[in-house]
Amino acid sequence: MNRKDFIELLKNWQVALLVILLVASVVFIFPHVEDGKLTTNLQYGLDLSEGSWLQMEFQSEVVGFETSRPVTDFLTDLQTELDAEIYLIADDKLEIRKYVPEPELGQIFTAAGGRLTSYEQGVSKETGEQVKQILEQKLNALGTRDAKVNPLTSLSGVTRYMRVELAGVSLSQAKDIVGKQGKFEIRIHTTGNETEHVLYGDAITTVGIPSQEPPGSDRWGVSFTLSEDGAAQFRDAAIRYGATTDPDNHWLDMVLDDAMVYTAPLSQDLAAKLQVEPIRQLYASTGSGQEGLNAAKNLEIHLRAGALPVGVSVAGSGSVSAPLGDYFKTMSVLAFVVAAIAVGVVIFYRYREPAIVLPMIGTNLSEIVILLGIAALIQQQLDLLAIAALIAVLGTGIDQLVIITDEVLHEGRVPSPHLYQKRLTRAVGIIMVSAATVVIAMIPLALMDLSTLRGFAIITIIGVLVGVLITRPAYGKIIMAILSK
Question: Quick one: 214 and 231 in the same domain?
Fold first, then answer.
């Protein structure tokens, strides 16, 4: 192919798109030398880098119930008997934030005038997301790199396990991070911007979920309860610094790890009550609408000072040392290279023509580079299963290029342009049906919280889409231009 033909080929939008994405992918991957080592922007999972993982099991359950009593009375008796936080998450479902075996819980329900209709250990999906948010905030505050928090949620919507992966962190450090609470403090404004300490987070005994006050209104907030000593300290400070008589000039600040998370004055009603007696049950209003709800959710997390709303136990743990991660990385690269060479040998044996084999191998490898570029862009971690997905994409990609090549060639020659386009369209149609089957098969794995299997599915789906939409059409134009000579 001479220079003129090559330029004409590049003017084809499908080929031009392939070249542009290939260059952009190299930029996203950004291979460069750092500290004497070749490094990239690719993110590696625990299989290929040093780190630890913890799988935690929630000590809680989501249960279905029936009762002929008023639900509020039934729940009150249950809460007294169980001495645990209980939340009504549906008309006939409860989340009990304390582990109680099913037989024992069934007896308690019967004694309270109800019946246990279903039992599943874990928490509701909303509580699982809250725990995930708390852990992510902890990890971000500590500057932990390449951290992943994955709730493992069943089809029923109950989250029983939470998996935390921490690159560059030892197992003992990982357990310490997950269990670490922040320093929460309430301070009161005295004069100007000066503030004085009122109490620490250990004086807060319970924290409610975001609620509307009054019920049914559009205003959101979070209720929390102080210990008896904490309520007395709160009242003394409010009276001493004038917050009960002049609340607008003596706001309360809530601070978590020296960062302001909430500030507001006492309500007139609360200020009047504090003049008379200590108040244990408090309510922090955060505003109205969706913004107020979001603020209430964040404040709930801060009031807990990073403590998880439900108890957990470590159901599994493990770590990967730096030498082992480097070994896995080396072996993964070696496996990929061997797979690429094997594919090249088989293709050459089939066609015995470099003009066919080289474009096929080049197109296939460019697909892998584009796929890695997308992974770097969306910060998709690469682990052993993701590498397996890359090798699978390499193999299925060659299969589809063979289909195109065999379909467009007619008795060893390129047919007329009209017939060529017709055959290419038919080949691409076959490939699209095959690709759709793979994507549909992978979608459940991509949507379900199955940790590393999810990465495998995502890489496979992206690889199939890149092939069908970008590299296969471009290859059709490239192989026609080459074989017509």
Answer: yes
